[in-house]
Amino acid sequence: MDYYSAVRAFMHAAELQSFSKAAEEMAVKTSTVSRYVSDLEKDLGIALFNRSTRGLALTEGGRVFREGATVALQALEQARHAATSLNETPKGVLRVTMPSSFGRRHIVPHLPEFMRLYPDIDIDAVMNDETLNVIESGIDVAIRIGALPDSLLTGRRLAPQRRIACASPDYVARKGMPAKPAELAEHESLRFSLVPDDKWFFTRTNANGTVAEQAIVDLQGRFRGDDSETMLALALAGCGIALLPTWIIGPALREGRLIRALPDWEAHPRRQQPSIWVLYPPKKTVSSKVRAFVDFYSTIIAESPYWDAELPKL
């Protein structure tokens, strides 16, 4: 017995309450539908329909089987769509939102290669530091930086978000360099206003990766801001010690325009270590254009991002 065809015949007959109408819907003979249903009844050992001159009516067993068959056919159709979509050519408009600075430095430079690989995808880029509502804004993909984001979205961690405490040579010449985290309390710190309290969290690890020491520092400083590019500019100008992400600080460190402070310590503006994420609305089947973008940038950036590998050994 062709079980799939038999179940489809049963479902059509149950909906239309007629073998002949089901046969017309399936473009087969009425006798074929009748045979399919009879074979199902033999297999299940129950009657699925009560037959009369007025038509077909489901038995109790028929109603139970219909409920289960409905779920099974939907799951099969979803699996079929998911599999066939793998062969679809990625195409259409892909609306992407990303933080302005990170996007300009590490998403946009790779877009020419992405667009060369996928000539049927058009990019609509939204450079915005605000956290847009992805679904309401019609966003296909969002690049986000922070702690684990809204669980209603689906996605993948692209990379960890590491930060480095640093200052300009001019600042170090005037104010000195802290030898341990506690000494930061005596320095001008460039504070990040998106963090609820003015603290930095430090961790020092042993050679085997276990935590050797932790410290929390209350910051002092005349400036607070919400933009990494602004913090970078002020740090370069000698206005204080900044805690900057590694994806923005590499060139300044390599060129000696900034000096790393407390190189034996990992530092974060929050207790929970943030990450860089690529997110998209939850769907049973991810579109080929979204999958192409996510896979491309996951390969480009990776869990050990290229900007960390390019940092000078300090």
Describe it for me?
This protein is of the alpha+beta class and 314 residues long. It is 38% helix and 24% strand. The protein is built from 11 helices and 15 strands. The protein has helices at residues 3-16, 19-26, 30-44, 60-84, 100-107, 111-117, 169-175, 228-236, 246-254, 288-301, 306-309; strands at 49-52, 55-58, 92-98, 121-127, 141-146, 154-160, 163-167, 191-192, 199-205, 211-218, 224-225, 242-245, 259-260, 266-268, 275-280. Strands 4-3-5-15-6 form a 5-stranded mixed β-sheet. A hairpin with a 2-residue loop joins β1 (49-52) and β2. α1 crosses α2, α1 (3-16) packs across α4 and α2 packs across α3. The model has no long low-confidence stretch (mean pLDDT 87).
Q: Roughly how many Å apart are the termini?
A: 71 Å
Q: Poorly predicted ranges (pLDDT <50, ≥5 residues)?
A: none
Helix/strand order: HHHEEHEHHEEEEHEEEEHEHEEEHH
Give helix % range.
25-40%
Cα Rg: 30 Å
Task: Indicate the structural class.
Answer: alpha+beta
Short description:
With 314 residues, this protein is an alpha+beta fold. It has 11 helices and 15 strands. Helix 1 (3-16) packs across helix 2 (19-26), helix 1 crosses helix 3 and helix 1 crosses helix 4 (60-84).
What distinguishing features does this structure have?
314 residues, alpha+beta, three-stranded antiparallel beta sheet, 15 strands, 38% helix
